[in-house]
Predict the structure.
Amino acid sequence: MSDLVAEVTDALARSILPLVIARGATGIRVLAAGDDGVIMLEADGSPGAVLPILHRIEAQIRAAVPAVTGVRLAGAGLGARSPEDGDLGRAAQRILDAEVNPSIAAHRGHVIVVSTDSGWVRVRLEGGCQGCSLAEVTIRQGIEPLLRARLPDVTGVADVTDHEAGTDPFFSPEKR
């Protein structure tokens, strides 16, 4: 293992792994280190848990290991839409409407598919789910595993909800 990979692996274990696990991934590891100092990471479990905080992970790694010039997440393909992405979005919304929305309706909540991109399903939580302190748990332990199990083309789920704008969350952050 190269020195750079070993240093980054140590930084991940010390300060980043607990953050990643708290968000719903089961782990994170270094796949490769380029000669240019760019590190390629892979998340285990829920890749959607890592994508929204990738900039924080990169900042922590770069602070701990100055030789690192950039951080990339494997499988985080956010490129152009492919023709099948529309079908993926419709299929994901059908599953959400049939299996998730009836359950979260008891909390005045609703989830919709906003877009899909290269296997990533972006969802927005509405009603009592917007601003709910358990929204991340709902996504990482409920919605994402369900969609990944039913739709093999799903890479991960990203929450694009503006939780700060929630006016009536079912579980307010103070109740955590």
Observations:
- The chain has five helices and six strands.
- Helices lie at 3-22, 47-50, 54-64, 85-104, 135-150.
